[in-house]
Description:
Blueprint: E1 4-9, H1 15-26, E2 30-31, H2 33-42, H3 48-55, E3 60-63, H4 67-70, E4 77-83, H5 86-97, H6 101-123, E5 135-138, H7 139-142, H8 144-157
Parallel strand pairs: 1-3, 1-4, 2-3, 4-5
Helix pairs in contact: 1-8, 2-3, 5-6
Amino acid sequence: MGFVITVSRRFGTGASMIAEQLSKKLDIPVYDKAYIENELHENNYSDEAEVIRELAKESCIILGRCASEILSGQSNVFNIYVCADKEDRIRRIMKKESLPYEEAKEMLEKNDRERSEYYYQHTGKVWGDVSNYHMILDTSVHGAENCADILMKYFERVGMV
């Protein structure tokens, strides 16, 4: 069984970029919603949880999809939650999606609401509760571009890599 990193995040935090950087540094794949849904439909899995458990047999990074909860209790899993100030997230969405402020804000609020509902529906827990994660990264404080390096230093220091 490999080393698995789950990344839960607020929309607009830069978590996907952090996951991609970690993927390159650790030479392991990143699996996101699109990949997991594709696997579910193409390979006759019963649900996303089954796909996630199968992917977690090898080292990987899994973005969202309640993976932290699905894989809870496995000693090879490290759960990260990425957050940022709302205004920073709105600015990041504005830049990435080329949207005006109000549209970016609406997109952020809708996405956060949907993620919160999805997480609660599938786990019965509150999304973003710090007790569900090993580490919380605030990209408003650390900068999304620095978080993969912060994680790598931590992983090296505790002997995870």
